[in-house]
User: Fold this.
Amino acid sequence: MLKAGIVGLPNVGKSTLFNALIRAHKAPAENFPFCTIEPNLGVVSVPDARLEQLARVTGVPKTIPTAIEFLDIAGLVKGASHGEGLGNKFLSHIREVDALVQVVRCFADPDVHHVVGGMDPVRDAEIILAELIIADLESLQRHHEKIAKEIKRGDKAALHEESLIQRLQAHLNAGKPAVSLNLAAEERAVTRHFFLLSDKPTLFVANVAESDLPGLAANPQVNRLQEYARAHHRCETVAVCARLESDLIDLTPDEAVEYLRGLGREAPGTADLIRAVYKLLDLRTFFTFNEQEARAWTVRAGDTAPKAAGKVHSDFEKGFIKAETVYWDDLVKAGSVARARETGHYRIEGKEYIVRDGDVLLFKFHH
Assistant:
């Protein structure tokens, strides 16, 4: 299962948001730096309205959503790359995740201490980036030293790596994250082996006050962060009120809906955030069903039908013959499996078929 790491300065609401995502008061969320020391790990269901529609059409009583993991990582401070605060631990935990969810404080609250000073989301984001860049430059230097002998011998692969290292060093020294460097696909495949922290897909979360929710579109702090994220990280920003989202845990689903509607919102902000992280990781959802349940599963973009079959059971991938396939929307519009078959929406796909987001699959395999 892929992991997204929740990162940011201390006291920006990381643990509060983590609790809201996993719908439990698991992570301590106190008003002092480093209240999170060891990372908290939670499995989070991915909201998907298609699943309930499939359950109705197929007549099954139960649905099981797909999931991703979130890791709540200790707050990072200036100097973390040189061991300040919990720097070394922080950086090692970042290496374990597939994407970064950077929480940035966009709320004013005199009762919640700000470790740097007044509210300035761009400055806070740049502190985090600077520490990742310093760590990455050190990693590149170590890698260069490791291949120095091969470079001297004129080894083609080593010379290619050296060229990439030099391009990355120049890019990082200009204050830009590795993820924003234009690289060809084969070059990107090589740089993945450098395990650079700033090369991870990133999503920013603007943590706002509850009173800010009705006017988010005109919020100057959120707008500044959005512009910065697009310009420097080529990524998006999702605005949430972590404290409100965490408070919703203690309400019944109906109470939560009623409370949110009072704020002019139809769904929790965490639902938008989870879907945004799913998209960030370039994931696709396919569905299966049997007599008992309709279920969502996750594959990476470009995965083939046998790979998808292996998500359900390893034997399905080993003995894969074919997959009966129908697009979820065609099945729902048909109103039943029988009608979808009659109207020719079901088709047979083989081993080379690349799974689309929204496919409903039935696997045939050798026992």
The two ends are 26 Å apart (CA to CA).
